[in-house]
Amino acid sequence: MVQCEMCGAETSDPKTIKVEGAELDVCSDCTDFGTQVKTGDSSSSSSTKYSTSSSSNSSSKSGGSGGSSGSSKRRRRDMFDEMEEIASDYDERIRNAREAEGLSQEELAKDLSEKASLVRKLERGEMLPTDDVQQKLEKRLGISLTESTDGDDEWSGGDSEGGLTLGDVVKRKD
Q1: In a domain, 6, yes or no
Q2: Which residue would you say has higher pLDDT here, 63 or 81?
Q3: In whole angstroms, what is the distance from residue 19 CA to residue 16 CA?
């Protein structure tokens, strides 16, 4: 018997699902909380859920069915695959657009029905805008604060020749 990684119930037939990017072995009651990514051999002792070849075929652009056939290697796309992220230079974009319009931080805040301290924190990069504030800023200033991601961008590792490593940068306190 295997324990469900979501609710803790004992199950003899765990299913592997993907929930917000994490693969979990769950009981049949919890399969509705995610997208089923692997079928076939249900014994998790002979295969690992962290295998790169089992279900992560990133060239698939279709919705896929996550089907019941054991030979299907397509994965269903989820909401994170085509998600737009806040741009890394969002603070500069906001400040530059505000200054181009000739507005002070207080005037922009009033136009957005927000506090001036919020605008100051956004321009200093101390906080990320909520979806609501982001939409107000984009509409009022005529800018975009997002960058599109492909969803499968992963760190590929550094090169082994030259370059800095964490050990080169960190100073120990002895």
Answers
A1: yes
A2: 81
A3: 10
Between the alpha carbon of residue 36 and those of residues 31, 32, 33, 77, 139, the distances in Å are 7, 9, 9, 11, 39
Residue 44 inside a domain? The answer is: no
Expressed as residue numbers, the domain containing 97 is 84-148
> pLDDT for 134-170, tens place per residue?
999 999 999 999 886 554 545 555 555 667 777 777 8
- CA 78/CA 136 separation, integer angstroms: 27
Lowest mean pLDDT across 57-61, 108-112, 132-136, 163-167: 57-61
Residue 10: strand pairing partners: 3
And the tokens for 67? 């089907």
Token reading at 86: 């806040």
Report the chain's mean pLDDT, rounded to a whole number: 76
Q: What's 91's domain CATH number?
A: 1.10.260.40
Neighbours of 98 (CB within 10 A): 22
Q: 43 near 64, Cβ under 8 Å?
A: no
The count of domains in the chain is 2
Look up residue 46 and give its two tokens: 């002979």
Residue 21 falls inside a structural domain: yes
The conformation of residue 142, written as its DSSP 8-state character, comes to: T
CB atoms within 10 A of CB 119: 26
